[in-house]
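ok here's DUF4974 domain-containing protein, seq below lol
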Amino acid sequence: MSLNTEYIENLVFKFNNGSITPKELQVLTDWYNSHDDQKAVVTSPPEKVKSRMLTSLLARVANKRSKSVKLYPKLRWLAAAASIIVIAFGAVMVIKYKSSLPHSAQVKTSIEPGGNKATLTLPDGKSISLSNAQTGIVAGAEIRYIDGSIIENTNVNQTNNTQQLTLHTPRGGTYIIRLQDGTQVWLNAESTLKYPSGFSAEERVVELDGEAYFAVKPAYNINGGKIPFKVTTGQQIVEVLGTEFNISTYPDQASSKTTLIAGKVALSNNDSRIILSPNEQAVTTNGKTIVKKVEVTNYTAWRDGKFSFDGKTFKETMAEIGRWYDLDIIYENGVPSEELVGDAFRNQNIGFVLRLLDVAEINYKLDVNRRKLTIKGKKK
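and the structure came out like this:
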């Protein structure tokens, strides 16, 4: 991106004194990311962030000698603005790697990211490994892949809605299913969706273990009334009429989380019933539910092939990474208090995670053969 140096310098100073406009901030962000750089993000005190940001930006404006400095491969954060500056919700520090990384960052790995992986279990117990070349399936009397090709020997009696089918993604897997009513469900890694061979005229009920994003299509009975769609989990029952939402209910999580993107849902647990509005999240722990406002993209980024670390604890972030790369995460000396922020593509080698840990000054040990990542704690 070719922009007048004096103009960029002015934008840098306006960023530093807080007078920069959103449009100017976008210009500065785009200019910054048009250069080949290496950046990772960790939380840091605001004043330190401003100082380092200003130094980095001014150095870039002042001269072009960055090409002569040996730098390490770029971490490709999808959201450029989030990878540089978090305006309202906290500070982000953009860090240039030193000319020599700690030894732990130089570990070579063969652990690749996850992809399209799933198995479908039919009512008779027959299990089918679904194609990794496909992204999803379409339910019906004859089950097909989304591209229309038939999955052989999968004829299902849709008139018997007591028969259950199960779609399961392993660790490192994700898959889509379009149900008989047109509802689409995106399954995240290590998740299971149980659904009937045919929905009744009174209600549509599925069961979830793990995490999934639902885009529910409205359905109507012969009298014109809407047929409710229900998702049952270990701690919640979510009822909708037509909406989009995300549910995370992994067995190793203390809480079940339902995040509403659009429409309205009614959430029940024990004797309580809560109505969620868009951009709200219901968190149920030990039978008690709280509702809070959230940035929904932080909880739905996985559906678009991204990690989003914002608003999550270190343990939550590492659990998500562990499921995607099929790694066991071990904490040798407790869970570090650091939080990673920003987002990144999920199609990268495990090496990018190790670089994040190095930047956050976390000691770790990766055992590739046993697929185990041991977190030893903060470096001293």
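fwiw DSSP finds seven helices and 26 strands in the chain. kinda neat tbh
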